[in-house]
TrEMBL record:
Residues 1-34 are annotated as: Disordered. Residues 1-10 have a biased composition (Basic residues). GO terms for cellular component: nuclear inner membrane. This is D19L3 mannosyltransferase. It holds the Pfam family Dpy19. InterPro entries: Dpy-19/Dpy-19-like, Dpy19L3. The keyword Lipoprotein does not apply. It is found in: Membrane.
Amino acid sequence: MTTVRQRRVGKGTEAAEDQPSEETNVKPDGKIPPGPPGGKLWNILSITVGGIVAISLGLLTSVYVATLHENDLWFSNIKEVEREISFRTECGLYYSYYKQMIQAASIQQGLHGLVYDNKTESVRTINILERMNVYQEVFLSILYRILPIQQYLEPVYFYIYTLFGLQAVYVIALYVTSWLLSGTWLSGLLAACWYITNRVDTTRVEFTIPLRENWALPFFAVQIAAITYLLRTHLQPAQQRLTLMAVFIATFLFSLTWQFNQFMMLIQALALFILDCLDMLPTAKVTWLYIIQISGLLLVCVLQFFNSMILGSLLISFSVSVLIARTIQKNLKKGGLLNRLGKLILHVLLVLCLTLLINKFIKKILNLESDEHIFKFLKAKFGFGATRDFDANLYLCEEAFGLLPLNTFSRLSSTLLFYVYGFVLFLLTVAAVIVAFRNLSGSNQVQLKEKMEEYTVTLRPDAAYSLVHTVLFGCLALSTMRMKYLWTSHMCVFASFGLCSAEVWKLLLKCLHLYTSQRTQVIKYSVPIITLLYISFKFWPGIMDELSELREFYDPDTVELMNWIKSNTPSTAVFAGSMQLLAGVKLCTGRTLTNHPHYEDKNLRERTKQIYQIYAKRSPGDVHRILRSFGTDYVILEDSICYERRHSRGCRLRDLLDVANGHIMDGLGENEPDLKPSVYPRFCEEIKKNLPSYTTHFTRVFQNKTFHVYKLAKHK
């Protein structure tokens, strides 16, 4: 197993404007609260200082995570093979295409090798640019080749520094979003500080560098910042057009860099749909955002050679359904409360039915099954019947796809983030309910506004969007731990905005009958400053200790395996094994694989299940036949899988295979009544006894404490 250990040495290197009626439905005085008094010069000075602070914090965050990565692995000192092994599982697979492009004789040859790839899946030629989101690796490799930096910077450093640089973009986008919402850059400063001090729960870039989300989330944050600005009232037409262009570019880049983009944007589309139905966002802007989502995704579809998974996405079906339903129900936002509620229920049902019909029709036409494992997983996860499906159970048994652990909240609370977040969430949720009820009941007449001007609860469109966004992504994070990074980063924005917002404090003080303008301004600045001082005094020493802790990469067994493969097997050899390990085999040795971790393909999922019979109770003849059907020359067995103890009984890989094969599981415990004992012992255990029935098909050619490599006999 790969580990890190303490270093033996002491030092390391360091559109047209919206109709007034639409805006009035949202907030009577929808302008952002002005900054501190002092006129135009003060505003320019404030914006300049705020911008400098944003850029500085972004750069410091990049340096921070880069230093942590170096200190954790001693990356600058370890061998090339160790650096590559440190890119674990699918990270190694993605990085291998960057390496492949760098090592190609020309850019054209490199691209040809990706479009007609026959080394990622044996006995198959696949289009990597269609199947995987690796355009970022292609772009970076071309950039590295044409820039005069080869003699100064190794390819791997150009790659990781780009990812760490994107962290600067990420933090700046969070900072700007909070600033736009609150009207003060102090809010952005607090958001950035919370992001850094809650690093364990806001990012994992320092140890999963090539992961797709590390490319995509900075662009998603930029998109949210642009949407926040777009939802401000009284934008000039030129401002609105430029903002829409920024939203489109950010949406396109987000979609291009992550295969799960469609699911994240579906949640975003649901947020827009909810707010539009409640008359809390201007309809014209919501329509533009739907169009941008669809067009951005379709452009990515074209670049990915018309990837059918994108065409069959729920996002496209949903967005089209909303636009069709809105055309059918033109008078949706007219009438009294009961009338509006009735229309709203019909509207929701119509959109739901249209979405399912359109999606089913597209999948039927395209014969699309690439994402069926995700829906099987969701069905089993939320209790709609037990499943023996191997792929669904593989996800269900992984901690990353389980519920968000409770200790996450204790960590977030230690920085005060969760407490502030809960406080702001409660206040704005109450405000949103009041505003939604008022909008639906049509009780926001001018006379009523004038009569209750001082007491009317309002919620700006950008704040309303931020509220629903954080609620929906919070639900996603609570249900699936891996998705918490989409929530926790926005949690920093939302909490800091609330703490620095005059409107939030005004609402609270009015409820307590303590409101004065001066008191609101004092609290608006003093509470965030006190919070910043608390965070600094409590966490600065810990950050310094973290930066001074020096460790190094240590995985001698995997290094030995990769070196042996490079030295003792032909370059055309085909290897079978676990998909996580094989990603490293491809990166470190360039050998051909039978399977890999990019799981969004039905044929690959079926192939992986077959390859994994090496850990099931199958006869040596069956296993040999299966492996040879995929052109396998060598198979790698891992003791950590064969004798797995990380998962409990029922979730070990061998248990999943036994249940899928109809066999009872090993060890004490219950089995389903229709499961039967296997007539064969477990292959990965029995092969080590060198019995004649096994040695006829398999010859052991390498072993160490972790891995056993067997060469397959080529029977006629």
